[in-house]
């Protein structure tokens, strides 16, 4: 490690001011950032902790019927408090990492980092969520822009994520046991006007929507509707845990299982 300053603001406004310092970087649960610092892959001069901002914590329903989750809300809290309103999202949160990760990691940190194998980006994209920052609101379709890339600008903080609640949804995760990240996972959400399918863990471009499956399931919401579909393996991740072709195959398997769980 190395020397750096730590700011611990109690309001979003104070956090934004702290972020204006040279080489400042926000830190939420720190589950990704701390290992990155230890490996010296990042060297900010200032860490701005978001864990003390009460206005960024909590789970509630808004007047539009959306599930609203503060950016500094831990996975464990989402798992407990979202269950009555959006069971599929609560189930996703309950299966992130291990108890230590779930009690420190936050939804805002996960979505801001946009790891290509993270769970929350699939939940947000599959639900058609809106990501709220200190500056604006961004539709999930516009927010996720590639591996570790988002629409966030310099000094912008994820303060809340708003989830439309589908009529039915399920998150099917093929667990990589060493990291507990999904090797491949599918989030399927059925709405009155269509179906959304988001895939994580598979692509070199990060989380993405599988449009072909969405069209097939919109016409016939049944597991067999995706049985004959195939995903091009060209842009899939290939590593010691699985080849690109294997991941492409798992996309169909996980999506089919998710639909079967709903049906």
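Sequence proposed for the structure above (263 residues):
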């Amino acid at each position: 490690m190395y020397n750096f300053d730590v700011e611990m603001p109690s309001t979003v406004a104070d956090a934004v001011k702290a972020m204006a310092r040279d080489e400042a970087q926000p830190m939420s649960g720190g589950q990704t950032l701390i290992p990155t610092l230890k490996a010296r892959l990042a060297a900010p001069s200032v860490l701005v902790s978001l864990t003390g901002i009460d206005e960024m914590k909590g789970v509630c329903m808004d007047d539009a019927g959306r599930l609203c989750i503060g950016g500094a809300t831990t996975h464990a809290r989402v798992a407990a408090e979202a269950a009555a309103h959006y069971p599929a999202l609560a189930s996703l949160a309950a299966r992130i990492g291990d108890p230590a990760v779930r009690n420190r990691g936050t939804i805002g940190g996960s979505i801001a980092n946009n790891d290509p194998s993270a769970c929350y980006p699939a939940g947000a994209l599959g639900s058609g969520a809106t990501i709220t920052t200190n500056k604006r609101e961004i539709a999930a379709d516009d927010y996720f822009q590639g591996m570790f890339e988002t629409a966030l600008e310099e000094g912008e903080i994820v303060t809340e994520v708003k989830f439309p609640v589908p009529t039915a949804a399920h998150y099917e995760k093929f667990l990589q046991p060493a990291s507990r990240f999904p090797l491949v996972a599918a989030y399927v959400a059925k709405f009155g006007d269509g179906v959304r399918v988001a895939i994580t863990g598979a692509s070199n471009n990060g989380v993405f929507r599988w449009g072909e499956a969405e069209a097939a399931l919109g016409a016939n919401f049944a597991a067999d509707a995706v049985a004959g579909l195939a995903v091009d393996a060209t842009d899939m991740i290939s590593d010691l845990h699985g080849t690109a072709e294997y991941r492409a195959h798992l996309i169909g398997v996980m999506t089919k299982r998710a639909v079967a769980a709903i049906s």
